[in-house]
Amino acid sequence: MSNKAKINQVILLIVDDVKSSQFFHLLERGTLPNLKQLADTGTSCKYCITSFPSVTFPCYPNIVTGAYSGYYPEEGSGIPAYHWVARTDPPTIKKRLPFIRNYSVGTHIAKIGSDLADNVKTIFEQAGDGNFLSSLNIVYRGSYIVPPYEFNTESVFKNIEKAYNSPEEFFDNKEIPTITVGYVPKTDSLLHEKGFDHPEYIQELIKVDRCVGSLMNVLKKRGYYDSTAICLISDHGNYKAKNVYDLEPFFEKKGLVPYNPKKKEGDFDASFGSVGHFNFPGETWHHHPSINQMRHFSPTATTKELDLFQMLWEIPGVKLMYYRDDKNSSKKGKIHIQRKDEKTGKICTAYIEYKGMGSTLETKYTYEDDDIFGYENSERAQQLLDDKFHSIDDWLSGTYDIDFPLLIDQIPRYFKNPRSSDILVSTLGKYCMNYEHGETKNEHLYSHDLAIKESMTVPLIIGGSEDIPHLQIDFCKTTDIVPTLLKLLGHSPHKSVVGKDLFR
Fold first, then answer.
1. Helix intervals (H) in 144-269
2. Would you state the torsion angle of the CA atoms of residues 361, 287, 246, 108, taken in this order, to the nearest 10 degrees?
3. Are residues 274 and 421 both part of a single domain?
4. How far apart are CA 229 and CA 487, in angstroms?
5. Beta bridge partners of 24
6. How far is CA 487 from CA 152, 331, 338, 358, in A?
7. 91 preceded by cis ω (within 30°)?
8. Tens of pLDDT along 168-199?
9. 349: which strand partners?
10. Is 493 inside a domain boundary?
11. Are 180 and 142 in contact (CB under 8 A)?
12. Could you tell me if 127 and 484 are in contact, meaning their C-beta atoms sit under 8 angstroms apart?
């Protein structure tokens, strides 16, 4: 399992909510000098593609595991999205209705380790024996977690520095950590509240750079720099929506009551930024509904039958819709996709077929009249429109620099998960709804969740030790990070890992 490794430690820094184009603009302008030093002497990538939906969950845990959402009883992560309803396949019928998971709630975040399920492993769990440290890293399974004494960027880095200056404060054997993961969330809150173009957001990125510089100095002073790989990545990018919209009155007029499992009532559950996740009951709330059941739905507050598909098209700005086929299994199936022409109202139909699981998953994209995602306009992507199945790396190489990168691979991984929604819709950024579980929460225009390249493309830097190759990688995916860092340490990744070693 282990080979002789020149690099003895890795530090993975996940900075929330940073799009690649802005990051590298700041880097090349000299605004982030310490990170530029790491990039110039190590490896960097401007087109590192994250998971879909491009939200902290699932994007962040997928970085730390090297795997994606899937049919988690057999393969993949149990976390399909930031919000989900705890349904199983086959359904588990209980008196208590399925709960709603919402990672905005602190007690729910504490459940992430168990939510991942057992068929994926964190980077710590894949690395054998050793000291493993998490500094505010909430995907910490298999490591010693150090909560920050203050909830800010400096505190995250100070804890990492302390582990190198005084490891005895964390570990009985008084040795420094082999793997450290630090998570910086402040950039995300500033993005939503202020925007990516606001001075406070940019200053926070500058603060991250200063903290990286301080950490580099500590490593050099302690004699660890030459044997340490420092990796910086973000979980997702971002965008600015054109409008906000209050959805509460819309659902009230339709007679739909929000799902409340404690009260054992409700017709639907939804979370909706610019991408909307909609859950409906089938035979019961334990069951996913069939397509026919969604076409003939009876809401609680009215006797009028609803076609849920038609209803969702009536939401202002909805342009895309995805839903699973009734005959799908974990190893084979089809996803239905529709796109609405805003001017004519015409609805075009396409399909994603899938076969296999995990790293062997292959997908095929076909359409009836028009190419829904515009792949025909790209010479590389066009080659994948051949009515054949393709791997995740085929889709990556064909779509990494255009809108909807990697999406044909990602959609089936989402819908395979029994915890995923019944219908996904997207406004493509025309509207941001800020709607969660029956309430419109705010009026934020700055967000992330879409499959557009600005939200799906994140920066990647790996530097530090002179043993890091000096490369500018054309493209990669965020799940490539775990196998790459493990290989630097001389370890092989777990079988669940979908990513590949970038240096092989």
1. 153-165, 186-193, 199-222, 248-253
2. -80
3. yes
4. 11
5. none
6. 31, 29, 42, 20
7. no
8. 999 999 999 999 999 999 999 999 999 999 99
9. 338
10. no
11. no
12. no
Domain match, 191 and 225 both: yes
Which residues have C-beta within 8 Å of that of residue 266, sequence separation ≥ 6?
A: 257, 258, 259, 260, 300
Looking at the fold, whether 181 and 159 belong to one and the same domain comes out as: yes
Structure token digits, residue 304:
């009028």
Report how far residue 187's alpha carbon sits from residue 428's, in angstroms, rounded to the nearest whole number: 23
For 39-79, what is each residue's pLDDT tens digit?
999 999 999 999 999 999 999 999 999 999 999 999 999 99
Q: Find the CATH number of the domain harbouring 35.
A: 3.40.720.10
Look up residue 394 and give its two tokens.
Answer: 């085929």
Domain count, the chain: 2
Q: 283: which residues sit within 8 A by CB, 6+ positions away?
A: none
Lookup result for tokens 């990796």: 231
Q: How far is CA 366 from the centre of its chain?
A: 25
Same domain, 210 and 62: yes
Strand 239-240 and strand 446-447: pairing?
antiparallel
Calculate the CA dihedral of residues 48, 51, 54, 59 and round it to 10 degrees: -100
Closest among 277, 278, 280 to 293, alpha carbons compared: 280
Q: DSSP assignment, residue 256?
A: P
Domain with 363 in it: 243-447
Burial of 397 (0-12, 13-18, 19+ CB in 10 A): middle
Report CA Rg, the chain. Answer: 22
Q: Is the pTM of this model over 0.85?
A: yes
Q: Are strands 476-477 and 43-49 parallel, antiparallel or unpaired?
A: parallel
Residue spans of alpha helices (H) in 225-313:
248-253, 291-295, 308-313
Dig out the tokens for 202 from the structure: 């940019």
In a domain, 161, yes or no: yes
**Inside any domain, residue 398:** yes
- Report the helix count and the strand count for the chain, using DSSP H and E: 16, 24
Residues in CB range of 309: below 8 A, 6 or more apart: 294, 295, 321, 323, 423
* pLDDT score of 301: 82
Q: Could you give the angle at the alpha carbon of 108 between the alpha carbons of 106 and 114, nearest 5°?
A: 130
